[in-house]
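Lab notebook, design round three. We kept the backbone fixed and only want residue identities now. Task for the bench partner: fill in a sequence for the structure below.
Input structure tokens:
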């Protein structure tokens, strides 16, 4: 693995993981263009570790509050000062619980359909059509009225729905961030919570996938320097992309990414 290719893919991963334009779809396209035949390890480990670190840093205040409040709430439950049903009175502890609930459908889809999804990563034609689907999803976000997206708390149904959307987004070309955020908006979450929940929900998914596919032998074949370069580049670019995405989401401009997805989809189909 050439370090220039690693840096290039790190930039692509950092941008497209958080901008709602499908990181997996773009990596399939660019890997096809630069002739990488077996880039799965780099895709699943190095680049995703970098974007995981970006989420942890960007949402560090939320994560700190979630950890502190969850530990405190669990202690009160064991001391019988609060029943579990009162978790909604502790918003960050509740957010931790909803993330765990949302992770369940994602994990089930990943485990059951993993071989099916894996075979999709070689088709730029499929990626093209799925990018167009992503464009439709993002465009639909413009039709959601502001008065509908007022909820500041997630809830079980919306958590499971967003987790299901995250599982479906394993398909290359379907944007994980775009699909989960729009799903959250459709279930009434306000823009800020829809974005925060989407990216926080990605933490266990990325962590689990990275642990399951970690392979020192494969990293040795790629090279330690390119591997670390992929982490660093995707981390830095990911932080920038996160700020852009959350800013556009809060301003109600999320649908601006829709035309790009249509264009990228057409290009992918043409490349095929």
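Proposed sequence:
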């Amino acid at each position: 693995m050439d370090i220039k290719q690693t840096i290039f893919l790190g930039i692509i991963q950092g941008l497209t993981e958080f901008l709602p334009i499908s990181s997996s779809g773009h990596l399939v396209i660019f890997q096809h263009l630069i002739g990488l035949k077996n880039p799965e390890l780099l895709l699943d480990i190095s680049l995703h570790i970098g974007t995981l670190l970006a989420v942890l840093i960007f949402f560090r205040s939320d994560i700190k509050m979630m950890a502190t409040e969850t530990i405190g709430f669990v202690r009160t439950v064991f001391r019988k000062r609060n029943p579990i049903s009162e978790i909604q009175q502790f918003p960050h502890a509740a957010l931790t619980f909803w993330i765990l609930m949302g992770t369940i459908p994602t994990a089930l889809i990943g485990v059951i359909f993993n071989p099916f999804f894996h075979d999709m990563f070689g088709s730029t034609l499929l990626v093209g059509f799925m990018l167009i689907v992503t464009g439709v999803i993002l465009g639909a976000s413009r039709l959601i009225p502001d008065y509908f997206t007022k909820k500041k708390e997630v809830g079980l149904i919306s958590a499971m729905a967003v987790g299901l959307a995250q599982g479906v987004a394993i398909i290359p070309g379907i944007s994980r961030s775009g699909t989960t955020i729009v799903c959250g908006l459709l279930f009434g979450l306000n823009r800020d919570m829809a974005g925060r929940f989407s990216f926080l929900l990605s933490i266990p998914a990325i962590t689990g996938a990275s642990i399951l596919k970690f392979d020192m032998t494969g990293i040795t074949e790629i090279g330690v320097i390119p591997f670390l370069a992929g982490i660093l580049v995707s981390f830095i670019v990911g932080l920038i992309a996160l700020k852009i995405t959350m800013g556009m989401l809060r301003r109600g401009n999320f649908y601006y990414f829709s035309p790009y997805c249509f264009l990228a989809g057409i290009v992918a189909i043409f490349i095929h």
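Keep this in mind before ordering anything: The mean pLDDT is 88.
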